[in-house]
Amino acid sequence: MAYELYYWDGIQGRGEFVRLSLEEARTEYVDVARASGSSRGTSAMMSIMRSGSEPHIPFAPPFLKDGDLIIPHVANILLYLGPKLGLAPKEDGLRYVLNGLQLTITDFVAEVHDTHHPIATSLYYEDQKDEAKARSAEFIKERIPKFLGYFERVLQQNPQGPQHILGDALTYVDLSLFQIIEGLNYAFPKGMAGHQTKYPALSALHDAVARRPNIAAYLKSKRRIAFNEDGIFRHYPELDKAA
Amino acid sequence: MAYELYYWDGIQGRGEFVRLSLEEARTEYVDVARASGSSRGTSAMMSIMRSGSEPHIPFAPPFLKDGDLIIPHVANILLYLGPKLGLAPKEDGLRYVLNGLQLTITDFVAEVHDTHHPIATSLYYEDQKDEAKARSAEFIKERIPKFLGYFERVLQQNPQGPQHILGDALTYVDLSLFQIIEGLNYAFPKGMAGHQTKYPALSALHDAVARRPNIAAYLKSKRRIAFNEDGIFRHYPELDKAA
C-alpha cells in the first residue's frame, strides 16, 4: 500500500521536506489533502486529527500513515522512511547522527516561521509586522550565519568529502538542506546575497541536489507547489535586507 | 563506560528532560559541564563543539556521548536511551509514536523559550520585554491550552488507561510531561491556575511521576538544579497572568 502523506494543501511548508525524499526515491505516495476521492482531501486529514478514538493522534500535520501506523513530525517521518527509501546510512549509530542533523533543521525552520510570526501564530502577519521586522533583522544578522555556518562546517569536516552532510552517499538531510537554501533564497534574497561564497560546500550541495534527475523532474512538475505567503518561507520585501 | 551528558551548567534547561530519564533508571552518567577533573567542565563541552576535526559536531547542547558516538537533541537522545533504560515500548512502530510525542514537547519547549525571547536570543530579556508581554499573553491564552489539551486528550484516549501517555508502562515522555507541568507551574503560576481541573489526567500523571522513588530522591538531591531566570522556564511576574 502506498504511503499516505497528510499535510495542508496549497503550501510547501513542512510537508515539503518529506515530499523531496519520497520524490527522490520515486516512491508511490498519496498527498492526501491534495487528492480527491474517498478518504482524501483536507477533511480526511482533519478527521484523523479530530478522532475521538484513535490512540495515536498527531498534534499537527505533517504526518505519515503507513498502514495503521501514524507517524507525526518531519524528522520522525524521515527517520522512519530514510532506511526504507535508501536515504539513510546502514549503521545504526549514524542514523542518530543523521536524525540530529535533521532536528537542527527542524529548529531552524521554526525560527524561519517566527520571522513573520514572532508574537503569535493566531494573529495576522499585519498585526505583528513591527516585531517581525525586528526579528527578521536579527535572523538575517545572527541566525542565518549561525545555522548555515554550522552546516557548512559539518560538510567541510566530513572525512568522506563535502559532497554530503554524512558519509559518502545522499541522505534525506542533503535533500532538506537543498530545501532550506531554496526557501531562504525565496524569502530573503537580499539577506542571502553572497551565500555561495560564504557557504561554498552548502551551495554546491544545493546545486547538486537540484540537478538530480528525480528532483529536477519533481521541481518542474505540478506536484511542486510554488513558494507563497501562506507557507513557512515567505517573501515580504519589508523583512528582507542585506546581511 | 558511563554515559556522558553535555549541557550548560547552572540551569535545568533542555538537559533536564534527559536527566530525568537517567535518574529514573538509576543509570550511571556524568553531567560533564558540572563535573570536575580531566575532560570535565564547560571547557570540555566547548572543546567538542569547537572541534575542527570531529565529524559529528553538535549544533548546541544538550548532547550525549556514548563511547565515540555523539548524539545531539533531547528527543534524539531519549530515542536512543529509551530502549536501553527500559523507558520505551518494545514494538518498533510504537517507538516512532513515542518519538512523535516527544517532538511535540520539543516544539512546546521552543515556544516556552520564546515567551521571554520573542525577538532574539542574542538580545537581553529587558530589551524585548514589551514583545515578551505580548507573546506571553498569547502563549497563556492560546498555546498552553492547545498543547496541554492535546496531551490530556492523548492520555484520555489511551486504550490502556490514562495513567501513561503510551501503553501501560512508564516511558520517557511521561517523565518529560512531568517536567513540562513543573516548569509551567514555576513560570506561570497565575496562567496555570486551575490546570488540575482542566487537565486531570495530565495532572495525575505529574503527581504520580513526582512520587516515584527514584524521581523523588532526585528532586531532593543536589543534582536537581532549582528553576531560575537563566533557564527555559523563567518566572517573570510581569509575563504571568490568569488565562
TrEMBL record, chains A, B:
SUPFAM superfamilies: GST C-terminal domain-like (SSF47616), Thioredoxin-like (SSF52833)
The GST C-terminal domain, residue ranges: 95-239
Molecular function GO labels: glutathione transferase activity
InterPro entries the UniProt entry points to: Glutathione-S-Trfase_C-like, Glutathione-S-Trfase_C_sf, Glutathione_S-Trfase_N, GST_C, GST_superfamily, Thioredoxin-like_sf
Any one of the GO BP annotations: glutathione metabolic process
Enzyme class: transferase
Cited Pfam families: GST_C_3
Domain GST N-terminal: 1-89
Keywords linked to the UniProt accession: Plasmid, Transferase
Protein name per UniProt: Glutathione S-transferase protein
